[in-house]
Amino acid sequence: xxxxxxxxxxxxxxxxxxxxxxxxxxxxxxxxxxxxxxxxxxxxxxxxxxxxxxxxxxxxxxxxxxxxxxxxxxxxxxxxxxxxxxxxxxxxxxxxxxxxxxxxxxxxxxxxxxxxxxxxxxx
Amino acid sequence: xxxxxxxxxxxxxxxxxxxxxxxxxxxxxxxxxxxxxxxxxxxxxxxxxxxxxxxxxxxxxxxxxxxxxxxxxxxxxxxxxxxxxxxxxxxxxxxxxxxxxxxxxx
Lengths: 123, 106
Description:
The structure holds 2 protein chains of 2 kinds.
Chain A: E1 3-6, E2 10-12, E3 18-25, E4 34-39, E5 45-52, E6 57-60, E7 69-73, E8 78-83, E9 92-101, E10 106-113, E11 117-121
Parallel strand pairs in A: 2-11
Antiparallel strand pairs in A: 1-3, 3-8, 4-5, 4-9, 5-6, 7-8, 9-10, 9-11
Chain B: E1 4-7, E2 10-12, E3 19-25, E4 33-38, E5 45-49, E6 53-54, E7 62-67, E8 70-75, E9 84-90, E10 102-105
């Protein structure tokens, strides 16, 4: 069974750094891109970007380019989302998600989702 | 960048009603369109991909249609467990934008 398990809730102060994780189970982690999605309190879903764990190739949404960093360690089947300096506006729940596959190919819709990591940034 | 516009932003219907949600892309995306259901405090769940292919395990009262710029998610007979927010999602090329969401209530 495919599962994505994310790290726990975080409470941080503005200016602090943070790295949250997403560990994959039940499939070959190298084979599938992982996406990151932000959901601010009471708001909709925002696509942040993608990382391919096999070679750490990244694609960022223009809205998040330069604000966050994606990384992956394929030796432990884990992807990461990192901030170097948090702002209050980063308060949100962050989801990782794995792309979906049909019988013939794989595409960039999200078939499997992590449980979400709530991040609160407050002084 | 291609924008995804969902309508309505919210709706209220009765159990057994037919419910239709629309999603419009600002440029053609073929059928690279997915729909998700999200309940409060939970991650989204994939309902439909390829504009009209029902994901495994999703009840058959859900259906999707459309291509290029205009897409529809239909719930043929609304059930109490369908109370949720629904999102469309284009996935043909980056950025892979979500629609703004439609909150469905009973």
